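Researcher: Re-running this chain for the archive, since the previous output was lost when a drive failed. Same request as before.
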Amino acid sequence: MAGAAVKSGHDPLAALPAPDPWTAIAKGMAVHAVTPRPDVGLTPHRVIHVQDKLVVRYYEPVARGPVGHPIVLVPSLINRAYILDLEPGRSLCAALAEAGHHVYLVDWGVPGPEDADEGVSYVVDTLLPRAIDRANRHAVRLGALSGAVVLGYCMGGVVSAVSIARHPESPVAGFIALNTPISYAHAGRFRDLVAPEHLDLDRDLPKLLDGDGLVPVNVMKPAFNLLDPVGSVTKYRAVEAAASDRDKLARVLARERWLEENVPMPGRFAAEFIRGTYQQDLLLAGTWVIEGVAVDLRAITAPTLIVTCEGDFICPPAAALPLARAVGSAKVETCTLACGHIGVVVGSEGPRTFYPLVDRWAREVAGVSR
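Model: Regenerated structure tokens:
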């Protein structure tokens, strides 16, 4: 009878009631609430530079062979840096070190009250140029080629672009902009959230700051949740679906840990950055003046790779791709991957496509092969 049913195309399970999605969500919420978060940032490394809250973490190459330029990874300032070293098998730091690169991760740390008055200039003119220089010096002493390949991710890509443009003396051999918004008229949901008609920085921002002059996590987290209103539903269903598999559940909850551990933002930096980018869209126009000097992206002359993602609603491709026309580099490459803003570094597309892309491009810049 079973064979006859299959042969006729009849599905004997079709008459059974579908599982109640709300039951799955409730189970996922329970698992999410009681399950400890896994450890993260496990790839062996050592700190080679500290300035203020910023530290630079060094990941020694595992593979032996021709040594190219060091790779400096620059994540966003408003999230924890370990997204680039989340867990075994989902770590850009580990993958590049295993491919033979000297890898350096800029970890911005967690701002405190003493950082409230630090603006964009402190980041792009002091902290980041010095971090890149220290990483380059360290790598050269170990036999690497001079000049770093700087990979900036999201806001990390924005401050990297601004810093490289303002400091042509910085030892940069190549620039990779990953999901980096440059044209803010096309910057998607986050632009809608902080548009001047919704957020008057002079009037509203002081009300959002805590007593230490920081934009606190309890203000930022609801804002992030608004970017993906159904995210909680899909999150809990994903947790429930993975609950019976320890490894899958650990992978889901590692990402959850990163999403939960936001960091505050200095009030002055927030005002200057949001006004110059999302509200006034000055960067692409070349009219963003920082400490009396306009940012000219044409000063970026190093080979440049721009990576975007089809499913990215934080930085849609239309917001990132104009960088290709704005830089002064004679060698510009663009690539759009079939994944999302976070999945590109910690989803399956990371080890399958993105990590090898960075490895290949960095080797091409250095003129070396495995």
